[in-house]
Design a protein that fits this description.
This protein is α/β, with parallel strands linked by helices. Helix content is 39%, strand content 23%. The protein has helices at 18-30, 46-58, 76-81, 86-95, 106-110, 127-130, 134-149, 161-174, 203-208, 211-218, 224-233; strands spanning 2-4, 11-15, 35-40, 61-66, 100-102, 153-157, 179-183, 236-246, 249-258, 261-268. Strand 1 and strand 2 form a beta hairpin. The protein is globular.
């Protein structure tokens, strides 16, 4: 399937099988082109497009994927309620001149070999602690997608910074020849980190959720109690607020619920 955008100068390929993605990548590599890959779970926004645009600058061909991976959801209701709009996703990717999008079925993905790796404790803290099995599912699906797409570079947003660390660890442990590129968090005007889940917030809740970034930006150990009070007053049900350092990089992480919607964010600590 081909999609042509009236706003873009190129035609985007829509690939729905392993056979199609394998042939497409083989053809591109035969032409000596490098492959940039942007894995997503769909319901795309400007944050995802920043990754597509970064890939277009660093690779000859950009491939995005859309696949909602059930194995990384520890809450079945979260999986069932995850927003989807394939038609809008394809239009947005075409508008941003993505070269191809891979939309596999669950059966196709699960037909590929999976891998298990020692994550050096990364799967036991923060998201790993509060979402048992989450990073096991992430490792499985990213490894399988990498097996199908065989990219030279793959692009991930720093909003899911712990996930970024997990994927880098997996690549190192398995010895995959792919460069993992992290990209800055894209935020809404009020500072809320862009997320596909934000659409589930009310207009008022979306505005009040700015307290998350405000808390991260003004946080220190001495005012932790005040930070927690401000979050609670705004209606944020805090799950964790933690400093974490890995490979000499320290960041502050937060997760919790606004109007029943789970949100995460993080910032660098200088």
């Amino acid at each position: 399937m081909l999609i042509f955008s009236m706003f873009a100068s190129s035609i985007m390929q829509v690939l729905r099988s392993l056979h199609e993605i394998t042939n497409y990548v083989s053809e591109m590599k035969h032409e000596g082109k490098t492959i940039g890959f942007v894995p997503t779970m769909g319901f795309l926004h400007e944050g995802h497009m920043s990754l597509v645009n970064l890939s277009r600058k660093q690779a000859d061909v950009t491939i995005a994927s859309i696949y909602v991976n059930p194995s990384q959801f520890n809450d079945i209701s979260d999986f069932e309620n995850y927003p989807k709009d394939e038609e809008a996703d394809l239009a947005l990717l075409a508008l941003n001149e993505c070269d191809a999008v891979f939309i596999p079925s669950q059966d196709e993905i699960e037909s590929l070999n999976k891998v298990q790796v020692d994550l050096d404790g990364l799967d036991e803290v923060m998201e790993g602690k509060h979402r048992p099995g989450h990073f096991k599912g992430v490792v499985e699906v990213v490894y399988r997608l990498f097996s199908a797409v065989t990219p030279d570079k793959a692009f991930f947003g720093e909003k899911d910074y712990q996930q970024l660390l997990v994927i880098r660890k997996m690549v190192d442990e398995v010895g995959l020849n792919v460069d993992i590129v992290g990209a800055p968090i894209i935020r809404e005007k009020n500072g809320l980190a862009m997320s596909s889940r934000n659409v589930r917030l009310s207009k008022e809740g979306r505005e009040r959720a700015k307290v998350i970034f405000e808390t991260l930006s003004g946080y220190n150990d001495l005012n932790r109690s005040e930070s927690e009070r401000n979050l609670a007053a705004a209606g944020f049900e805090l799950e964790y607020l933690e400093e974490f350092e890995y490979d000499s990089v320290k960041r502050l992480f937060i997760a919790g619920f606004f109007e029943g919607v789970r949100l995460i964010d993080n910032v660098s600590i200088n």
